[in-house]
Design brief:
The protein has 98 residues and is an all-alpha fold. α3 runs antiparallel to α4. It starts with a helix and ends with a helix.
Length: 98
């Protein structure tokens, strides 16, 4: 029964996430993503815990890819945040390198 409960929670979270994100105006997606970079860190930690408890090679492969994709997502979030913040710098600050 534990597997069905996990599947139910996953499906409910996916549906809820889709509904919430689809109602956000396009102009707010980047600031919201930059504000949620901490969530990406939690995902990476969770993937590392899952990988640490993996016993079979299949579980280890899935855990490895979860850590890899979670880390890429976290790094990408910070890159997008940096690019977004660079758009708001004045020309004077850009020339000084600040």
């Amino acid at each position: 029964m534990e597997g069905f409960t996990a599947l139910y929670i996953f499906m409910l979270a996916a549906f809820t996430g889709y509904e919430v994100i689809s109602r956000v105006p396009v102009i707010l997606h980047t600031p919201l993503m930059s504000g949620s970079n901490f969530v990406h860190g939690v995902v990476v930690v969770g993937a590392m815990v899952a990988l640490g408890h993996a016993e079979t090679p299949v579980e280890q492969a899935i855990g490895f890819f979860a850590v890899l994709l979670g880390a890429a997502n976290a790094a990408g979030g910070y890159v997008v945040t940096e690019r977004m913040l660079a758009m708001f710098k004045s020309d004077k600050n850009k020339k000084e390198g600040a």
